[in-house]
Amino acid sequence: MRDLFDKIYKDKGPLGKWAAQAEGYFVFPKLEGPISNRMKFRGKDVITWSINDYLGLANNEEVRKVDAEAAAEYGSAYPMGARMMSGHTSLHEQLQTELAAFVKKEAAYLLNFGYQGMVSTVDALVAKDDIIVYDVDAHACIIDGVRLHMGKRFTYKHNDIESIEKNLQRATKLAEQTGGGILLISEGVFGMRGEQGRLKEIVALKEKYNFRLFVDDAHGFGTLGATGAGAGEEQGVQDQIDVYFATFAKSMASTGAFIAADQEIIDYLKYNLRSQMFAKSLQMQLVVGALKRLDMLRTMPELREKLWKNVNALQNGLKKRGFDIGTTQSCVTPVYLKGSIPEAMALVKDLRENHGIFCSIVVYPVIPKGLILLRLIPTASHTLQDVEETLDAFSSIRERLENGTYKRLSAGVQASEA
Ligand SMILES: Cc1ncc(COP(=O)(O)O)c(C=O)c1O
């Protein structure tokens, strides 16, 4: 028998093995100063393209004022306990009512964290004889929810309708034997590459197959659709989404999340969501802050207009310069380049140190080997000047990548095998 920790001493995991080269710079970086389009990284001014503050609310003066007043009034403890026991208030109810109306559903229920909320919503929606059908590129919180499922699950090829249909056929056959139902889970927007889930086509399959649709719209909420109600509204199928999820961690620039559905489904979920029944209620300062933010989402379409002006300037500018930005249909702006992990590290260092551009870098194993994904998140607080500077910087790093500069700079950098 070996010691439980032996494997940890030997293998730090696919990302952890890069810790010696990456920590503090590529991962766990410290961005300092007020959250905005320009912040400080290791004492240097950088244009920040890595924060999901889509509508620029994180440092909005009115929002900050409401947050501060709510913190002064309620502190960070109130209310104590889980919703079901002692953590329920009228303001929690009011926020739920307003969120439901905003996303055009009968009812909503607050979640103290998006991730855990997603995990336990999946868990609560299915029983052993039910079958889950979900996208192979689903967010980790969906995968973890599926992991709790005691019955069968099928993954389909990313956003591939043919594969979805094939898996619905398999699931239907199986469900006829088990006597269960089918839950299909998609994201409204896939956060890494920016494609919208093909909700319209998925919904059309309801004509042929009997399933319920659960959509994680973390990136769509507040950014897509005529009123900002998300990917379902954008694609004209919001009423066909059976359970809708969004987090406050992106457009709302806060913490917390919610699910929305028919009243009867929410009534069921509020008595069966283990992550809410056995954990502390969303803090009041976050509830009050979310009411303020939601009011701004509703009444200030100019925030979304400014966001999209920046998104379009950035994405069109990149395309015009010949960059591959994949198939994004949202604010998420991926830029794909070809290179090794050490080259990617040298390139990002150049971007940050010499061009003052801070964006996230994604490499294998999150994306295929040999690809570098630089992920840019435009927000309403960016300016066209930020976009121009960034486009110039990107042209420069592409040239240096292609002429081998980063290969030379990175010679000798290898992942520690320890
Ligand atoms: C698609 C998606 N779902 C769920 C979550 C989790 O939300 P939270 O940060 O509120 O836990 C995230 C990340 O924030 C996300 O990107």
Automatic annotation (TrEMBL):
SUPFAM superfamilies documented for this protein: PLP-dependent transferases
A Pfam short name: Aminotran_1_2
Keywords: Transferase
Cofactors: pyridoxal 5'-phosphate
GO MF term set: pyridoxal phosphate binding; transferase activity
Ranges for domain Aminotransferase class I/classII large: 44-393
This protein's name: Glycine C-acetyltransferase
Species classification: Bacteria, Pseudomonadati, Bacteroidota, Flavobacteriia, Flavobacteriales
